[in-house]
Design goal:
By secondary structure, this protein is an alpha+beta fold. The protein has three helices and three strands; from the N terminus they run H-E-E-E-H-H. The protein has a three-stranded antiparallel sheet with strand order 1-2-3. Strand 2 and strand 3 form a beta hairpin.
Length: 79
């Protein structure tokens, strides 16, 4: 599955106009114009939903220093 499928999935879970919370991982430095974060929208954790639906992979390089590594969904997908 690719980029477009993930975008369409996110649009369904978190349509335009929804309130989303981006919780940046306080233990990760901001680099390469990206942040490590968990995104919540409409009572769902988008990270978990993308992983469950095979639309994302867990970047395990971040796990040793992530504040989210002990979350159930993170452990289930490789942290």
């Amino acid at each position: 599955t690719g980029y477009n499928e993930a975008i369409d999935f996110i649009k369904n879970v978190c349509p335009v106009g929804s309130t989303a919370l981006v919780d940046q991982d306080d233990l990760q430095p901001y680099s390469h114009d990206r942040i490590v974060a968990v995104v919540y929208c409409n009572n769902k954790t988008l990270n978990e939903e993308l992983l469950k639906n095979n639309l994302a992979i867990m970047e395990t390089d971040f796990c040793p220093k992530s504040e989210f590594a002990n979350e159930t969904w993170a452990k289930e997908y490789g942290c």
